[in-house]
Description:
The chain is built from ten helices and 14 strands. It has helices at residues 4-11, 18-34, 66-77, 100-105, 122-140, 152-166, 214-221, 239-250, 282-286, 291-312; strands spanning 39-44, 49-50, 58-59, 81-87, 107-109, 118-120, 144-149, 173-177, 184-185, 208-209, 226-233, 254-259, 266-270, 275-279.
Amino acid sequence: MVSAWEDFYAKHPPPQDLAQNENALKEFTKKHLEGGNKVVLITSGGTTIPLEHNTVRFVDNFSAGTRGSLSAEYFLQHGYAVIFMYRVKSLEPFSRHFLGQTFLDMLQISEDNENPVITVSPKYTQKVVAVLRKYKEAMDKEKLLQLSFTTLSEYLWLLRSACQALAPLGNRAILYLAAAVSDFYIPSNEMSVHKIPSACGPPTIQLQLVPKILAPLVSLWVPQAFVVSFKLETDETLLITKARKALNKYHHNLVIANVLQTRKQQVVIVSNETNYVLSLTNEQLNNGEEIEQLIVKDLVEKHTKFIRSNEVS
């Protein structure tokens, strides 16, 4: 009997750039395997569900990629190589500091109209220098690989390829699955080819459940890796119960559980043995401290113990 996830891949063609991305993944993971480095795959941002093959309309889900992009920077600080798999136009590590008008406000133009020179305003120079140095260091050491997706199908194809590339690293790999993946989709063979006309009134669309990809990921694709998933809820009373249900069902290592309204200030780390809170005070939050720094520090410690316990056994 064909599993739900196998059926999904059979019915949805791979993205056109998959072979190119697979080559980049193989080169990146090979380099860090040979260098004895630890590698984290971070998924970030949301996925779209197209309503048409020639897509004009789509169903989206909430995620700006904040947690993933911040976490990537902190993993780099801890010496990890990072595969950053992100939704197009969501936040990216380092460049997240310079978005929109904020970036333009940092710049100033000289008075020379014939040969104008653009410089960074003195009050922003230290910030720009600090971020740029970290970015250049990551790129010079080939510690950061960024790969993008938009649709659910592109995400699932790229995720499987990334897992296959990471498998040789064994327990030195972390999967940090922070992307907000759609729970429902429209099968490719049921989508309209062209833009759905509005003249006929509202369409009736039948959504199907997305196969739970954690199952093959944990049991087949990267069985030795340290796998971390995320659980976001709006009802705090359901949070721990649903996180434990996921752990019991998929047998991965950790769930990072958070409530929508407080996700930037508090998370709960849920394992098979225990659960505990990581949080920032209001003062820390107002001073610009980021909960992702605490999350990554905690995971790095756990991953180190995970590697040692596997070596002993």
